Amino acid sequence: MSHPPPAQLPLGKIVLFDAECVLCSANAKLILTRDKKQVFWLASMQSEIGARLFAENGLDPADPSSILVIEGERVRTDSDAVLSIYEGLPFPWNMARIFRLVPAFLRDPIYLLIARNRYRIFGKRETCWIAPAHLQSRIL
Fold first, then answer.
1. Separation between Cα atoms, residue 126 and residue 110, nearest integer Å
2. Does the N terminus or the C terminus of the chain have fewer Cβ atoms within 10 A?
3. Could you tell me which residues come within 8 angstroms of residue 120 by beta carbon, excluding any fewer than 6 positions away?
4. pLDDT digit string (tens) for the chain, length 140 residues
């Protein structure tokens, strides 16, 4: 299966996540089920397109230190990526924007601590999370 080149990626926000991480895949499911405007597309770092996009943005898809959100030419990482996701979801999730009041230099170390320890804290799946059939069209 061939994937679209970057110029042909869908409009909206593309969330690149770790489909083996229990927390990350739960977050992916939440995004897809709450995103009624269908703004978000998802790609796992384990997929061909996800690995390519991680690498193109300077992260090792085999050991990423961050979630990525790509919106056109803008790439968000760390806590900024997480906030951009929740800000794009309906109430009450969009209330996460209040955390923008906290400077990134304070938010990011907390995010990175959780990201580096995500398997130990939340667990690791034996196989990658697969979206339910009715949401498959939103997975790249």
1. 26
2. N
3. none
4. 344 455 577 778 999 999 999 999 999 999 999 999 999 999 999 999 999 999 998 888 887 778 899 998 899 999 999 999 999 999 999 999 999 999 999 999 999 999 999 999 999 988 888 888 888 889 99
pTM above 0.90, yes or no: no
Strands 13-17 and 74-77, bridge-based pairing: unpaired
Nearest to 28 by CA among 46, 11, 10, 5: 46
| Lookup result for tokens 């230190």 | 65
Ordered domains of the chain (ranges, CATH): 10-131 (3.40.30)
